[in-house]
Write a structure and sequence with these properties.
Elements lengths: L1 E5 L3 H12 L3 E5 L3 H8 L10 H10 L3 E4 L11 E4 L14 H13 L5 E4 L7 H16 L6 E4 L9 H6 L4 E4 L3 H15 L5 E4 L1 H32 L3 H9 L20 H14 L5 H13 L2 H9 L8 E5 L14 H11 L3 E5 L4 H8 L4 E2 L12 E4 L11 H7 L4 E4 L6 H6 L3 E3 L7
Parallel strand pairs: 1-2, 1-4, 2-3, 4-5, 5-6, 7-8, 9-10, 9-12, 10-11, 12-13, 13-14
Helix pairs in contact: 1-3, 4-5, 8-10, 8-11, 10-11
């Protein structure tokens, strides 16, 4: 088979690399010339475990190609994946301009039947807009060329995306013809040999499935954070509560860990977009509105704990942050709680020193020199008045607490990920504040 993937961001690059890994000829297209030049030199634009060697291996084997010219990568292809960005507009709706631009270019250049697959997360009804955009370009050319439009949402976890693609829980594909279904079944056969299912459905249902999945996971997170905040007031231990409800098979143990809120490229954007889609259709998703409200509030939780601890005066204080990315195993800082914390701390006159294993360059790109970056985790503690654990990177799990205490001016830890055991930390002589076990 011959496949073209438009967009070399997180979804597009992982998709292209993993498809080429099973022997498919893949062309990855992007309008960003610098990004394409870098990829052709083996420079990967994102940090994702396992991706770089896979890209280099398949590029060298001539199965994976990078170009800025979509028109040269259309003839003879079976499937074109649209994996471009859908950033939120000011009203929270998904901006479809890039998705539709791809569709128009396909319509201007296609000469034979193909399946145009939307891989980007898009609102219900987008496939019909894609179909119309392609057809309008074919009509302008005065040609009749059959094509199908399909939806194939991604369910990749940042930090484990390669493994998720190669060994998926499920593959959701929305199609509108048997011909498209047969092509997509053949494309994904290498990934289903171990029993991973392809779930075929109509296109609108596939589009909705992605939003519903991410919104459900976001709901679990915000629900648990809301319960954690109540536990602090009532004197309950949210860690015990989590174990108690997580053992119920109807609930499960995943995504019920309390913390300082979710971030990243998917949950915040998709929750907003689904809320807006409902509003546009005369319906209010009241639960999701609350999910979003709780999450935004939760990002400030450590800040308010620090304000209470230091008597509402952080002026002149130095706060050490361990972690900047929204989750471990990625340098992604989109909607990261660290950004909210940094802004609030600085606004109160505090100085921030930060360390992250991979996200410091991304942080510099986003916020410049608003914080001081250190070469290692302990460097951030030097002359700091408190430690805030923001991202649960593995190397933060078992630090030398004797060194931590020696370096800090004040032996206090604000743990935003409930990484440490209270009794152990307090025995080491620290004041310890986490999420869901402290009375106000």
């Amino acid at each position: 088979m011959k496949i073209t993937v438009v967009g070399t961001g997180y979804v597009g690059l992982v998709t292209g690399a993993c498809l080429s890994e099973v022997g498919i000829d893949v062309s990855c297209i992007d309008i960003d010339k610098k990004k394409i030049d870098n990829l052709n030199q083996g420079i990967i634009p994102i940090w994702e475990p396992g991706l770089e060697p896979m890209v280099k291996r398949n590029f060298e084997a001539n199965r994976l190609h990078f170009s800025t010219d979509l028109s040269s990568a259309i003839d003879g292809v079976d499937v074109i994946f649209g994996a471009v960005g859908t950033p939120p507009d000011e009203d929270g709706s998904a901006d479809l301009q890039y998705v539709l631009n791809v569709a128009r270019e396909v319509g201007r250049n296609m000469n034979d039947y193909l399946v145009m697959v939307t891989k980007s997360t898009v609102p219900v009804g987008t496939a019909e807009k894609v179909r119309q955009a392609i057809q309008e370009e074919l009509d302008k050319r005065g040609v009749e060329i059959p094509f199908d439009v399909a939806s194939n949402p991604e369910f990749l976890k940042e930090g484990d995306a390669v493994n998720d693609f190669l060994k998926p829980d499920r593959i959701v594909v929305g199609v509108e013809s048997n011909r498209a279904r047969d092509i997509m079944a053949r494309l994904y056969k290498p990934f289903t040999l171990n029993g991973h299912p392809v779930i075929f459905m109509d296109v609108p249902s596939a589009e909705m499935t992605k939003y519903a999945a991410n919104s459900m996971l976001a709901t679990k997170i915000s629900f648990m954070n809301d319960i954690a905040n109540l536990c602090e007031i009532m004197g309950a231990d949210v860690n015990m509560v989590r174990k108690g409800i997580g053992s119920d098979s109807r609930i499960g143990s995943k995504f019920i860990y309390p913390g300082i809120g979710y971030g990243g490229s998917c949950f915040p954007k998709d929750v907003k977009a689904l809320i807006k889609t409902a509003e546009d259709n005369g319906y209010s998703l009241r639960i999701l509105k609350a999910v979003e409200e709780v999450n935004e509030s939760q990002k400030s939780r450590l800040f308010y704990k620090a304000m209470q601890y230091f008597g509402s005066d952080l002026k002149g204080k130095t706060i050490a942050l361990w972690g900047l990315s929204f989750k471990p195993k990625t340098d992604d800082m989109r909607e990261a709680p660290a950004l909210v914390l940094i802004d609030k701390l600085i606004a109160e006159g505090a100085k921030v020193k930060a360390y992250d294993p991979v996200a410091m360059e991304e942080s510099k790109r986003r916020i410049g020199d608003k914080v001081e970056y250190t070469e290692d985790m302990y460097g951030a503690l030097v002359d700091a008045d408190a430690l805030m654990l923001v991202t649960e990177w593995p190397e933060f799990r078992m630090p030398n607490f004797d060194v931590v205490k020696k370096l800090l001016n004040t032996a206090v830890i604000f743990d935003g990920r409930n990484l440490y055991e209270r009794e152990f930390i307090e025995d080491k002589g620290f004041d310890y504040f986490n999420i869901g076990t402290n009375k106000k």
